[in-house]
Structure formats: C-alpha cells, structure tokens
Amino acid sequence: MAKSISDDFELKQDTTRIPFNELNDSLPKINYNELLIDKLKIKPTNLIEWKQRHYLTNYFNNNKKIKIFITFGNWYDSKDSLRLTYKPDGTLVYCDIPCIWEKRNLGELYPVELRTADAIFNSLRLIVRLATYDIYSSFDENSDISTSYVRTDPEIWRATPPFNITTLSTNSTLISFIASHITEFRKSFIPLLQAHMNVASFGNVYQNTPWDLYPECLNLWKFDTKNCVVSKYPFYLAIESCQEKDYSTEKLWDIFKLGVVPVIWSAPNVRSYLTHHKSVIFIDDFPNVEALANYLRYLVKNETAYLEYHKWRTMKFSDEFEKKSYMSMRNMECNICKEVARLRILEGRI
C-alpha cells in the first residue's frame, strides 16, 4: 500500500518526538508576575487601561490596607468627607481596595503614629512617605491621577426630567448665573448679555436677584442651595474662571443633574469629553452676544429644539466622559489609595 504525504509526515513526527519533561526544561522560563507588574509602570490613556491598572493593583496588593492621613485645605474640606462611608475596620465602603482615609491634624501626631501612614494628603498634593517623588492629583489629564469635578454618579442624571419650558411666560427670565468672584471675561460678557436679555445673577458678580426669591432653596448645603436656584431656569450660564485645558468644574457638571441646559465658556478641549456633543450651548459658537440671546429665546419657543439638548439622557455616554466620570471627585479617595498601593508594589513593599 502506497504511503501518502500525510502518512510520511506522521511518521516523521513520531520518530522525532521529544519527552515532555525534556521539552519543558528546554523552554525559557516566563515570569508572568513580572510582566503584569511591568504593565503597572505604563500611564493609562483611556478608561479600559485605567480599570486594568486598578485591577492589577488590587490583585498584587493582596488585600493589604492603605492608610492615608488627610489635612483639609481650600480645595478639599470637611464637607467633602461627609459623603464618605466606612466599614467597621475603618476602610472606605465603596473602594475595592482596603483604603483608610482619615482626617488628622499633623501637628498633633507623634512621629511613631505618623510613620504608620503610607501617605499624607493635603489639598491638591499627595506626599508619599519615604519616597523621592510626589503624586500630583488635579483636573489636568497629565497629572499622576487626573481628577475631574464630577461629584455624583452620572447615571443619576438620566432620571432628571428636562426643564418644562411650557410653564414659562413671555416675561420669564431664561438664564441664571452664579459666581463668587469676577474675571475679565465675566466682567465684559455679563453686561453685554444683560443688554439683550434678563440674567438672574445670584452671586457676588453683578448680583441682581436675591436668594430668598426661592425660600425653598434656603438653609441647604451650599451646593444644594445653588443647584436648587439654578433648576428654576431653563439655561445656566456656566462661565469658568479661565479657559485652561481640562478645566471644567461643578459649574458645568452639576448642571446636568438639574434638567437645565448649560451655556458654557470652558476649557478649549471641553468638546472632547462632554456627555454628548449636543448637551451644552457654546458661547464661542456665536458671532456676537445678540445672536446667542436670540437663539436662547428661539429654543424656549420651540420645545422640540430645546429637547434636542436633553437627548443625551437616553444615549450612551462618550468614552472620554466615561473616563472623566471614573477619574473624578466621587472616586478620588479610592483612586489615590490605589495609586499609593501601585507605588508600593513597584517598590517591592507588598
């Protein structure tokens, strides 16, 4: 019987077979832990990479506690910590890594107790104990831990109904504005807009409307009072203090949970990380202030057009916004603990 090519191949395979134990010894050894730890050295650029870093950090941290002492500054104060909840062992409830986030007065700490902390957090800068570097956390995407000003779960924003423009009268004020300090742009823009339409200003800048106009909004926490007042108007004038890359504060993000359309002057790259490209109105898109005022008046007379700015509530969030939400104030404490744990892993202290 003639042999086929496949028979000959099988024969050659049989005659050259190598015992498994010898084959195994001849292969180079691969240390998969080292490969995975090397991935922790690479700065993430998108949401998936950030989640991968945090997953690996949690794995190699092996449930070891991270202790951070915090001192409050102007940027992060005692009210920010009111939203935090703790487990019986003192770690944060919502964090998937054992994170102790504890307010302490550094002047009252003994050196022995101070050395039990892995890091000290003060305002925007995190100083890591026994390290030769700092961890910098800010709104800047280039910082070690970028932290946006998103303070609440954006999924909750979807449930807020849009402002009901059918309740407005002919003389209704359409837009509100709240700012604590004046800037060059605010100084020049607000009077120009007021020349074409009423602006209900409640803050220190061009205040013309008393807070007690809405008694139900008084005696609340400062952001709740502000948000209550803002929700009374179909538009909110969200003018940041500057146009700096990545800089979008609660002036923008808080408005999405109020059913109001933000009219914004914000970061030059803000379009890249909005919930949706048609979720805000850009001041810079109009040739002049009068054109903007006319457009706002058009929207409140055309419910279909106004609701176009609320369609994002039923749509998938943009990928860049998802990253902003994940790397945000609402997750900041946990994200910082994960960063400290990552550095401990890279130093071999786990």
TrEMBL record:
Q: Which Pfam families match?
A: Glyco_transf_10 (PF00852)
Name used for this protein in its record: Fucosyltransferase
Organism of this sequence: Dentiscutata erythropus
- The lineage's top-level taxon is Eukaryota
This protein's pathway: Protein modification; protein glycosylation
Gene3D superfamilies noted in UniProt: Glycosyl transferase family 10, C-terminal domain
Give an example GO cellular component term for this record: Golgi cisterna membrane
Compartments it resides in: Golgi apparatus, Golgi stack membrane
